[in-house]
Amino acid sequence: MKDFKKEEVATAFGTFVREARERKGLVQADVAEKLGVSRSYYTMIEAGQREIYFTLALKICSVLDLNINDLMKRL
Question: 5-38: b or e for each residue (b if 16 or more CB lie within 10 Å)?
């Protein structure tokens, strides 16, 4: 079984999300509003500075049309 380090997972998720947001032509404030979080909180997620709950990760994936399995392939 692979050893997942919290910092590495947070960084990988943040990069995954940022790339998807940029592909969709959205700014951080757009995504934060759709999620119901502040832009500063969302910025910390993209920067890998926040650990988030799985339910928020799923919500982010839904907003950005991402597949959570694609994230797992990156880890």
Answer: eeeebbebbbebbbebbeeeebebeebbeebebe
- CA–CA gap between residue 68 and residue 14 (Å, rounded): 13
Residue range 18-68, pLDDT digits in tens:
999 999 999 999 999 999 999 999 999 999 999 888 899 999 999 999 988
Predicted structure pTM score: 0.86
Tell me which residue of 15, 27, 31 sits closest to 64, measured CA to CA.
31
Domains in the chain, please, with CATH? 6-67 (1.10.260.40)
